[in-house]
Design goal:
Helices cover about 20% and strands about 30% of the residues. It has 7 helices and 19 strands. The protein has 2 domains: about 120 residues, Rieske [2Fe-2S] iron-sulphur domain (Rieske Iron-sulfur Protein); about 190 residues, Naphthalene 1,2-dioxygenase Alpha Subunit, Chain A, domain 1 (Alpha-Beta Complex), CATH 3.90.380.10. It has about 375 residues and is an alpha+beta fold. Strand 16 and strand 17 form a beta hairpin. A 7-stranded antiparallel sheet has the order 12-18-17-16-15-14-13.
């Protein structure tokens, strides 16, 4: 089950140019490109005429042209040219593709996938350290053959560290997790835990204060798929900021940022990258083997202990979103449409056009039963 009406970190800003770029999120295709002002445009990748793939077309000024019949779309998704039409033939108002709000922040392109008006949208997750003097940031990505909810929950689970990460920082001799409180906000949750960890090795062995018997670790999640890990080593801090993007039911692509305020020289980036990827690889085997593949809706379907408090908070917020009707059930899509999944998530632009809004309400616009109604 995927969730709409949130911001998704879709791609690195540096990867989006004036050439159309296809991306996959939530089992659906989008096309990104930059207009003449350098602003990122995000549209559904399917031409409404005959399902042509817009990312195989080309950009003309601020518009994109479909490679199949040449239909030309503005950045707001409206079709402005149908080459096959005779002069004077009007373009149908329904000739448009969904256009999605975009923000660029932390070196990423964020898409708002849903149709909430601007005032009602959840905010972007905060990362105040990014771009701040004294902090060094590196980016990367990591692919999982797992459902994104399992990847998210693994990122905010501290009790697995002594076992899965025993060769990195976990301490099997003292695996107990102290009682902790979860701080909840509308779309996020966080907790700080003092963890008995083994001293850093290699290049980082000198950054931890020797008088710290435990390491303060703060774990945070932002709905629906962003996590933050902050490790306080005294005067030195490390932050892992991860956007666990759902590609499909079985694939998650984590876009990650690692920040550190120690050894900030570029020559240390390679060592930091290797450490970060090592942790992901240690997690990968256990996460990909979990069953069921996605978190169950029923909180009683799996057992919980006090150390799971932050995970329980995440599961409850997932349920809250589903109960609001924000879920996209790809299993229902497959069953009702004989396996055809070429649908689009409605965007705010659709709601702003009275004729389309009325058609949507009256089910005159093609959509999948059980997804948005």
């Amino acid at each position: 089950m995927f969730l709409k009406n949130f911001w998704y970190a879709s791609e690195l800003s540096s990867a989006v140019t004036s050439q159309p770029k296809r991306i996959m999120l939530l089992e659906q295709e989008f096309v990104l490109y930059r207009d003449t002002r350098g602003q990122v445009v995000a549209l559904s990748n399917l031409c409404v005429h005959r399902g042509g793939v817009l990312s195989d077309g080309w950009v003309e000024g601020d518009c994109i042209r479909c490679p199949y019949h040449g239909w030309k779309y503005r950045a707001d998704g409206a079709c402005v040219e149908i080459p096959a039409n005779q002069p004077g033939v009007p373009i149908p108002k329904k000739a448009r593709v969904d256009a999605y709000p975009v923000q660029e922040k932390y070196g990423w392109v964020w898409l708002f996938l849903g149709d909430l008006p601007e005032a009602e949208r959840p905010p972007l997750p905060p990362l105040p350290e990014f771009g701040t003097p004294g902090w060094r940031a590196i980016h990367g990505e990591f692919k999982w053959n797992a459902h994104y909810t399992r990847v998210v929950e693994n990122s905010i689970d501290i009790a697995h560290a002594p076992f899965v990460h025993a060769t990195a920082f976990g301490n099997r001799e003292e695996p107990q997790i102290e009682e902790y409180k979860v701080h909840l906000e509308e779309w996020s949750g966080s907790a700080s835990i003092n963890l008995k960890a083994t001293p850093p090795k290699g290049l980082w062995k000198c950054i931890r204060r020797q008088d710290l018997p435990k390491v303060k670790t703060t774990l945070t999640f932002y709905m629906p798929n962003v996590t933050r890990l902050e490790v306080d080593l005294g005067q030195s801090k490390m932050i892992a900021f991860n956007a666990h993007n759902p590609i499909d039911d079985h694939t998650t692509l984590t876009q990650w940022i690692m920040l550190r305020n120690f050894i900030t020289c570029p020559w240390a980036d390679g060592d930091a990258r290797r450490r970060h990827l090592r942790i992901f690889r240690q997690d990968q085997r256990v996460v990909e083997a979990q069953r069921p593949q996605q978190l169950p809706y029923d909180l009683t379907a799996e057992l919980h202990v006090p150390a799971d408090a932050l995970s329980i908070a995440y599961r409850k917020l997932c349920r809250k979103c589903l109960d609001r009707g924000w879920g996209i059930d790809t299993h229902t899509i497959r069953a009702d449409d004989s396996g055809v999944r070429e649908i689009v998530i409605p965007s705010p632009a659709r709601r702003q056009i009275p004729e389309l809004a009325e058609a949507w309400a009256n089910k005159e616009v093609p959509r999948c039963k059980g997804v948005y109604n």
